[in-house]
Amino acid sequence: MSQIETVNAVSIWLFYFYYIKSEGKKGRMKGQVNINIEFSSFIGKLFRTHFGKGPESVFVTFNKSVIAIYFGNFLTPLEKALLNQDEMLTVYKTREIIMNMLIPEMKIQLEIMTGLKIAEFYYDWNLLNKSGLILGVFSNIDNLKKSEGWSYPGKIQVEEKIGLLSEEAQKRPLEISSFLLNSRLLLIKRAGVLTMIEKEIIKDGYSDLMRWKKKKLEKDLLNNDAYLLESYLGNKISDMFVDWNFTKDESLITLILQPKRKSI
């Protein structure tokens, strides 16, 4: 289901599945257009206020377990200048500081919009693509096992490859599961991925440095073997994101797939 709307001169593309469940009360589903306008207005104003620029496009995938917000063409002039000077880490650190301030407000707004409590929050950037991804987890992602996206072509090969790449980077995860949230968004969950030395480094207060180093290493490995993942999925990968919950020793990898052309 797709719909294109223009709000405050920003092109918003919204793709989502909406679900609300209220214990003891009759659930009420908000209209897609209302959610579109409410969210686009909020995220545009919030990012413009704190970053100086808002994203030009926003893609939202939403079900009872997770909300994924993928946005494009988001890079400020200052960040562009820093990237030209090979100061990518500086841009990441600056965004980390700002996002730490914005996350509480974003969680509240998303909970108001959806009527569901957010248990976990993940985010990542692809500065070269000028894109970003925000993930809000409402409940245990493993609940998606009951959804249609639990089974998809190439699932076994994808999960095995992710296990091998993780083993190359640090160690093989204790658990790997993946879910196709829609035709363009593949979510891969890993649990038990941190080594003992990584846990000690994080415990000593170097979690930001650890996150940055792990992102860079794992994205390099994913990019190097992207052609294999694409062969398993039968589709091209246009973007990828990685983030961790160090406290729970869990990680989420998100692959953005290219739209498939309809055969004539």
Question: How does this structure look, described?
Answer:
- The chain is an alpha+beta fold.
- The protein folds into two domains: 3-139, no CATH class; 146-257.
- Helix content is 39%, strand content 26%.
- It has seven helices and ten strands.
- The chain has a four-stranded antiparallel sheet, covered by helices on one side. It has a four-stranded antiparallel sheet with strand order 7-8-10-9, with helices on one face.
- It is globular.
The end-to-end span amounts to 21 Å
Q: Tell me the Rg in angstroms.
A: 18 Å
Number of DSSP-assigned strands: 10
Shape label? globular
Provide the domain count.
2
Which structural class matches the secondary elements? alpha+beta
Which residue ranges are poorly predicted, with pLDDT under 50 across at least 5 consecutive positions? 1-30
Give a brief rundown of this model.
This protein is of the alpha+beta class. It has helices at residues 32-51, 77-84, 88-114, 155-169, 196-203, 207-224, 226-233; strands spanning 3-7, 10-14, 57-62, 66-72, 120-126, 131-137, 175-182, 185-191, 237-245, 250-257.
Defining key terms:
7 helices; alpha+beta; four-stranded antiparallel β-sheet; disordered N terminus; 264 residues; 2 domains
How are the SSEs placed, and which strands pair?
Blueprint: E1 3-7, E2 10-14, H1 32-51, E3 57-62, E4 66-72, H2 77-84, H3 88-114, E5 120-126, E6 131-137, H4 155-169, E7 175-182, E8 185-191, H5 196-203, H6 207-224, H7 226-233, E9 237-245, E10 250-257
Helix pairs in contact: 1-3, 4-6, 4-7
